[in-house]
Write a structure and sequence with these properties.
The chain is an alpha+beta fold. It has helices at residues 8-14, 28-39, and strands at residues 2-6, 18-21, 48-51, 54-56, 67-71. The protein is globular and about 30 Å long. It comes from Virgibacillus pantothenticus.
């Protein structure tokens, strides 16, 4: 199992700040596709991704016990 942390709109859409899913051996891209299909989260593609508090790209592999965070783009002014 992996822990998935959700922020901002994702958190509001699902009504929770975290999920536990079976994502061992998946890439980040595969996890995003699974979550989009299961929870209808089209905005997931625009989110930054971190595994265990380090930013990663969509090709990064996920291992059991990892914590994956989906972080919205930051805007400022």
């Amino acid at each position: 199992m992996i822990n998935v942390l959700l922020f901002a709109q994702l958190q509001e859409d699902l009504g929770t700040d975290r999920l536990q899913v079976n994502g061992d051996g998946m890439t980040v891209e595969e996890l995003k596709k699974q979550l989009q299909k299961s929870y209808h989260l089209p905005q997931l593609q625009q989110m930054m991704t971190a595994i265990n508090e380090e930013y990663v790209n969509d090709q990064e592999m996920i291992k059991a016990g990892d914590t994956v965070a989906f972080i919205p783009p930051v805007s400022g002014g």
